[in-house]
Each structure stands twice: as structure tokens, then as C-alpha cells.
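Exercise 7. Given the components listed, write out the predicted structure of the assembled complex. Treat all entries as one system.
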Amino acid sequence: MHAQVAATSPQPQLEARAIHLWRGEKHLLRGVSFALYSGELLQVVGPNGVGKTSLLRCVAGLLPTESGEILWQGQSLPGARDEFHRELAYLAHVNGLKSDLTALENLRFGVAVRRAVTTEELRETLQLLQIEACADLPVRALSAGQKRRVALARIMLTRASLWILDEPITNLDKAGIALFEARIAEHMRTGGMILTAAHQLLLQGEPGVRTLELR
Amino acid sequence: MWLWFHKLSSPPYAYRTAGLVRPWLFWPAILLMIVGAIGGLVLAPEDYQQKDAFRIIYVHVPSASLSLMIYVVMAVAAAVGVIWRIKLAHAVAAACAPVGAWFTVATLATGSIYGKPMWGTWWEWDPRLTSELILLFLYLGYMALRASFDDTQRADRASAILAIVGVVNVPIVKYSVVWWNSLHQGPSISKLAAPSIEGSMLWPLLIMMLAFILYFGAVLCDRLRGEILRRERNASWLSESLARS
Amino acid sequence: MQSSVQTTPGLGKILMLVLARDLRLAVRHWDQVLQPLIFFVIVTTLFPLAISPALDELRKISPGVLWVAAMLASLLALESLFRPDVEDGTMEQWVLSGQPLSLLLLAKTATHWLLTGLPLVLMAPIVGTALGMPQSVWPVLAATLALGTGSLSVLGAIGAALTVSVRRGSVLLALLVLPLEMPVLIFGARAVDLAMQGEPVAGPLNLLVALLLFFVSLGPFAMAAAMRISVES
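Answer.
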């Protein structure tokens, strides 16, 4: 019943061409290129400090590159920035949650800026990640793993096609990681794309899962 | 013309060009300053009211004009850098700031020296001095913001926003200071206004103005070269050209 | 392929969301809202202590004192405008939301003004009376402070967006913002002074309105540009 779109789309949805980035004196990204198709997961790997987070931030449009192009659906990014961002969900090292609001309030405010959402939808997603008990607790009171799951819930709720996730499984326990892998597999099945940076490889050996190594 | 502009935005070319142009700005500036100084200090007749004290306007007025002009140049360069993403424009803006600040200080200092024999005090809150003081704060704020970013590119872009916001505010500040002052002394002219200028007093002023502009150009060339060196220190063209010379 | 046909909220809805969120956060942190107000009262108290207890002398300088104290209090309040959101990552989510960042930041600044500027406007007549200000001046005082603190908030927000990623940038913020705010101070304080002397205040009052409109219409773009630079790393 799911559309197997992986690798059959002729055009890559997301493309990076010869990205160069300097961090002060350091030439961090030297001509990084990749292409991401619907239904794929691309994992950026490499040692600490090699520029994985910087690459993800460049692709997301937070960090300007020295040179190189980023194309979304064939269009060069600086032009179509807002449309691109509507299709993008980004998860940083920090969770992007206000600690004084409850999990539910965080999700509501975080998602409603992008699309209308009902409380039932929010609770359903929390249930999928097995944190429905946290719904009405202030985020301050949650454990690090629970906070990360709330942040993942936000990613899922945006219904964006491209997920850029920076070290998504930090603080998650084994059960959390398993849940997370199930969610990203589902996202890929429905034609979504995921770009991550992590020390631990996810969904190893699955079709549509590739790695990009930075040196 | 456009091609030349594009060429100019390449650091090695700009570096060479600034080096070549500089003597053509500096020496005429010095010459004009001497001529202007002779004209202002020696040849121009004594003012009826202010006697010899007024002669300081030959430094004060050009300094004031230049301090404002440089801020505008700085803001325009910064805007060019941000809109067309030309890094050299940012280098120009960075090079302008200290020069402009110094001209502002010169304006304030000469204004103060001018004022002492006139009013008996070292400082008066008259429109020009007050607005020059605020302009100095704007320059200092710009330089402070630049210094607070480690990354040159971020410093460039952030300070560009500040410069543009500043330049838009400069007319507002000037107007408000004049209005503020006028409430207290009636619609009088600035206390530092030159006495009614006539021919023999006027030409040294114009000469000095031109001299200061050329001088600014020369100093800008020097500072720009310094900025280029600092920003491009890892670039290959620099080590090659140093190896050659 | 994930459906990208979703109802993106309109601009009015976004404003309401930002307002609701920030008000809710403020309610849970009353102390942060009160602090600038208390600072305002303390600073105005410094002047009688430093100058003289004689109300006649204080009355003469009361417009200036109130205005300077309001400027400084508004400056302190700016610490809580953007920094918390930048630190917990919520701001970069706004940058990536696909919605106009200038609008989001303007909404945030307006909410911040409601929480920090408006209380000043309401408090000022009381403090003014303590400095010998006659009651007849209260409407002009409130009007000039309301318009003025609005402009101060917008200018301050631009400075805050520029310095939010600078470590210990509060003094830098003051250096950048105070010179830009000087025209607002001039018109506002003078207007109250003119009112105390029974002179017409239409001139400076209109100028304050013009300044507010000017800053509100162009300021958000500067804020957004500055914020994009600040959230880069």
C-alpha cells in the first residue's frame, strides 16, 4: 500500500554541489557534494569537529556557505528559501523547547506557526513515541530522553518531507532508539527524505540508507 | 565600466590599485593643506569680531564635513557588501570606521579650542558639537560590534546592518539636536558657525575641504591594504606576490 | 511523496500565536516582568537623593529624569527579549519556519512592550508625582512615554538581535542602542517639559508618532537580518 518511490525518481530532491565552508581559519568543508532522493536516508559520518553539524546547518540554510550550491527540487536555494523551509523540519543539538511550557504547549506553539494542528493529533504523536504521560508536564520536569522524544514529536508533526536531524538519538535509551528507527523508516516509506549526522549508524543495511563520510 | 568594477572587487587587484593610487592622493593632499593653511592662517584677514580665533574653522569645518561623509561612505560600502556579497566592500567599510572616528574627534577638539576664547568654556552643548558627539558614539558602537565577533564574515554582516540603521538615523539625530537646541536660545545659528564668509576667507576653506577629502582617500588606501592583508593572509596570491617582491 | 498542501496560518494567526506563547511564558515568570519596573522606580529615587529633596528643584528636572530612567529600564528589559529563545533553540526554529521572520520578531517585540513598556507608562505618573510633577501633565506624560517606549522597544530589539550571540553583550547593547534612541528622548522629554510650562506639545508629539511609525515599519527587517546572522552557530 505504500508507494515505493526510493531510487526511482529521476531527479534528486535535495542536492549539494561543491560546498565550501571556512570556520575562522579552518577550511572545514572542502567541496562537499551529495544528492538525496525521495525515500532515502543519508547519514553524515566522520570524527568530531569534521563539520557534520556545519554541513547540516548549511543545507538547512542557517549557515551561509563560502561557495557551492544547494538545490531543492532543482531550484537553487537562496531563491526559494521560504518554500524550502516549509518542507523542512530541523532538529539541532538543542531541543528547541521552552522549559516553562508543557510538552503539549510546546508542540502546539511549535507546529501551529507552520500549520493548523489539533490537540488530538498532538496527543496521538506523543503516544506513538510513548510519552503521552508527559503531555501536561512542563518540559523542565522531563528527563533528557523524554525531552528528545518531544523534540522528535515536533519533527513528525510538521509533516515536512525533508528531515534534517543533528545527532537525533542523543539521550535516547534502547527503546527510544527503536521507536525512532521505526518512525524514520515510516517516513522513508511514504517518500520522505532524511539527512542526519550521528556517531551511531541507524537502520544499517536497509535499502535506501547511505552514508556520506567527511574527512 | 562594469567589468572594471568587478575586477576591482578582487582583493589582489584592489591591493595593487590602492597602492598605486595612494601617492596621487597623498601628495596633492599635503600640498593643498599647505596652500590652505597659508591661505587661512596668513592671507585671510582677521575677522572683525572673532579676530584670529576663527581661523580654526579651517580645520573644524572640513573635519565635521568629512566625519559625516565618511559615515555615509562606510554605510554605502557596507550595504554594497551585503546586497551584492562583495567582500572587498566590507573591507572598505571596516577601513573607513577608525578614520571617520578620528575626524569626529578632531571636530570636537577643534570645536572645543575654538569655543574657549569665545565662550570661556571648553564645551558647549551647541547643535554641531552635540551631533558630532553622537556621531562619535555611532562610530565607536560600530567598531565595538565589529570587535565582538571573532568571525570576520559575521562581523562584516552584523556591522553592516548597524551602519545602515545608523546612517538612516543620522538625519533624525541631527534634526532632533537642532530642534532641542533651538528651544533654548531661539532660532540662532550654531555658535560655531563661521562668521559671514566672504571671498578671501572662503577659498582657503574650500581648499582645505578638498585637501581633507584627498587625505581621507590616501588614508583609506593605506587602511584598505592593511585590511586586505589581514583578511587574505592565508591566500596564495599574497604569498606569491610577497615571494616575488 | 509527503503532501505539501497544508494550510499555512495567516499573518494574524501568527501574531496571536506569538502573543499567546509569550504571555503564557511571562505569566510563569512574573519576576522577570517586574524587575525592569522596580529598576525604573529605584533609578528615579536616585535623583532626589543625589540632588535635593526640594520638590521645586525636582519638578524642573522631572521630565528628563523619568525619561532617562525609562530608557535605562527598557534597556535592561531587552535582556529577556531574544536571549532565552536563542539559547533553547526556539529562535532558529522560527528562522526555519518558512514564515516571515520580520513579522515574528515584530510580534515578539510588541508583546515584550506590553509586558515591559506599558507598565512603565502606567507607573510613570505615580513616580512623577513623587518628583513634583503636576497632575495636569499626566496625559502628555503617558502619551509621550507610550509612543516613546514603543520606539525604544523597536530600536532596542534591533540592537538585541545584533548582540544576542555575543557573550556578555549587555554593555555593548547599551552602546549601540542609546545613541540611536537619543532623538526619542529629546522629543519625549521636551514634550513633557513644554506641557509643564503650558506650551503646546503638538510638534514633538507628532514627531514621536512619526518616529514610531518609521521604526515599526522598517525596524523588523533589520531585526530579522540581524537575527539570521546571530543564529548561525
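Discussion: Residues 2-232 of chain C form one domain. Residues 1-5 of chain C have pLDDT under 50 and may be disordered.
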